[in-house]
């Protein structure tokens, strides 16, 4: 009887220890050692998961091909229009000023994603660049090939960088539209998010399809990085703020390369 | 000997499924069966509370390290509680009651999983947790049918 009681106590003891360790882990998430272990674990599993990653890549090829064909079509049309414009405008008039407007003044560090394909809802991803490649230790914005926001760097080791992705429900960023409507982006689920703290007064300045950009008030994100576009706007009589649903612009599932803004 | 072989095959199948089972998504939400839960359940029913608790904790820890950033530690806590619950269910003699409780524990785990991952309504969590639990239970019984002798020993 006494022996049986001891066994029960041992099981309960293991349970309590595991619970305490989990809670300790939660409070030590900012410790550099824990972050290093995280990066190494993730890299180790990226090797194990590589066959699955290849299979996912192959299954995505069809849709990527279709979208590229469409892009090519659009680009051809755009090209014809631009050629016509070029013939009509004076190229040398205020040329430098025009370039300044077109090309952003930021420097970028290109990086490859070391994906593990463990879960599509992962809140982090690892990059193959680190301090040695010039990545800053402080938080920096990460964008995709089209300049859409992917997330921010959360930890940088010598060779790797961990990125906190935009699809974490605890990820928030201050945004604004071109009409200067300010709000806060928060992730909800799938590729959807919401814009919070926009009062009903601004409803007339917002339209479906409008894009929200990062605002200048952030120290991490430079302004005018595309974040999300409006899918729906609802004004409920019981609420002071608008219910704005947005679609994240970056395609997190098929990302392979990203850029860290210096 | 036969039972040992069955157990090894089941664990091998589950480990491969955890690593390589294709993604079954609905608008970006993973609704595929949770092989991790099946593995912890089998180990829990076979070896008891301590093994299930430790396995739940370590699998949760790996999940935390791989996919979590600000909520680090939640999956290991969830895995620990799940393993301990399964270990407690092992004591119950009535098989039907045992599986009803396993279903409930699976559902609670899935519900909390969606709650940690997404920021949606309670109905959203309920709906997807129910689908995920249903699929997981289906795979569990599929395995049970293939390895009926082994499962009969752990159900005792």
Task: Describe the structure concisely for a colleague.
The complex is a heterodimer of chains A (262) and B (156). Chain A has 262 residues and is of the alpha+beta class. Chain A has 4 helices and 12 strands; from the N terminus they run ααααββββββββββββ.
What do these coordinates show?
- The complex is a heterodimer of chains A (262) and B (156).
- Chain A has 262 residues and is α+β, with helices and mostly antiparallel strands.
- In chain A, 34% of the residues lie in helices and 26% in strands.
- Chain A has helices at 2-27, 32-48, 50-88, 95-102; strands at 108-114, 124-127, 141-143, 149-156, 161-165, 172-176, 182-189, 192-196, 211-214, 226-234, 243-248, 257-261.
- In chain A, a hairpin with a 5-residue loop joins β3 and β4 (149-156).
- With 156 residues, chain B is an all-alpha fold.
- Helices cover 79% and strands 3% of the residues of chain B.
- Chain B is built from seven helices and two strands, in the order αββαααααα.
- In chain B, strands 1-2 form a two-stranded antiparallel sheet.
- In chain B, a hairpin with a 2-residue loop joins β1 and β2.
- The two termini of chain B are 18 Å apart.
- The interface between A and B is large, with 48 and 42 residues.
